[in-house]
Amino acid sequence: MKDPMICAEMEKVPTDPLYISIFSFYTLSFTLSLFITPVVWYRFCRRTAFHINVKILISVLFIFGIISSAFGLINYLFHMYHFVFPSNPCSRIFYASECAWSFYSLTCCIFGFMLAQASLTIERLIATYRLRTYEKGHQYLGPIMATIVVVSAICCVVWGLAEMDPKELQYQCGGVPVSTKSRVVSMYKIMLLVDVLAIMAFGLCYCYNRRTLKCGRYELSVRYQVYENLRAIRIFVPVVTAHFIIFGLFLMGSIIIREFRASLTPKAYGIGLLALYIIPFYILTMCTLLFVILRKESNRVTSFQAAIAEKQNEKEQQAETYFRSLRHQWGT
C-alpha cells in the first residue's frame, strides 16, 4: 500500500505551477510533432531521389519520432486523467510497474534516435569507401542497418531498466526510475561518446568527398557518385548538427543532474530533469529542417528543369529561324 503521507510529500513536485507549465509545453510540442512528422516523412519519401538506404535510415528516425510523440501525448493524458479525477489520496503517485509502458517506450526511442544517427553516418562512410560498387552492390545495407538499430535500441532499454524496482513510487512516468540510475547513466555516457564519434566521422566524410570531387582524378561515373554522396551529406549536415547539439545537451545534463541528485531538493531535481527532456524539440527541429531542405531541393530541381526546357526552346527557335531563312533564300 502507498503511504498517504509520502504521497502528499511527493505530490508537491507535479502540482508545482512551474512543473505543470513545462509539462504542458512539452505535451504541446509532442502533439505538434505527432501531426507534422508523418507529413514531412511522406514528402521526404515521395519527393526526393536519395539512395534507398538513406531513405530507410531516415524513415527509422521518423518512426521513432512518431512513436515518441504518441507515447509522450498518451503519458500527458494519463497524468491529466489522474490529476483531474483523483480516486484516492495517492492516485497521482504511481508504482514504477504502472509506468513501465512509458519508461520502456520513451527510453527506447531516445536510444533509437542516437543509434539511427550513428547508422546514417556509417552508411555514408560505406558509400564513400565503396564508390565504384555501392550503387549496385549494397541494396540490402539499409534494411540490415535499420534492423540492427531497432534491435540494439530494444536491447539497450531492456538492459538499462533491468534493475527497476517495481514498487518504487513515481510522480512522473516520462523519465526513468531512480533505481535504474547506474545503468541508465552508463548507457547515456556510451551514447554521448557514440554521438561525438558520429559527428566527427560525418565531418571527415564530408571533407573527404569534397576533396575527391575537386581533384578530378576519377572517371565520370565515379565523380557522379562522389557528387551524389556529397549532396546527401550537405543536405543532412543541419540535421546531424542539430541532433548533436540537442542530444548532447540532454545527455550531459541528464548525467550531471543524476550524479548530483543527493545535493538537490526533490522539487529542484524533478523540475530540472523535466526541463532537460528536450526530445520533442529535437523532433520538431528535425522535421522543420527536413521540410526546409525538401523545399530547397524541390526548387533546385524545378529551376534545373526550367533551365533545360529554356535551352531546348532556344534551340528550337534557332532551328526555326535557320529554316525560315533558307525558305526565304530559295523563294519557297
From TrEMBL:
InterPro entries per the UniProt record, alphabetical: 7TM_GPCR_serpentine_rcpt_Srab, Nematode_rcpt-like_serp_alpha
Membrane topology qualifier: Multi-pass membrane protein
KW Acyltransferase (keyword) present: no
A molecular function (GO) term: olfactory receptor activity
Keywords assigned by UniProt, alphabetized: Membrane, Transmembrane, Transmembrane helix
Location of this chain's protein in the cell: Membrane
Bilayer-crossing regions: 20-44, 56-81, 101-120, 140-162, 187-208, 235-257, 269-294
GO cellular component, one term: membrane
Keyword Membrane attached: yes
Protein name as catalogued: G protein-coupled receptor
Organism, as annotated: Haemonchus contortus (Barber pole worm)
Lineage of the organism: Eukaryota, Metazoa, Ecdysozoa, Nematoda, Chromadorea
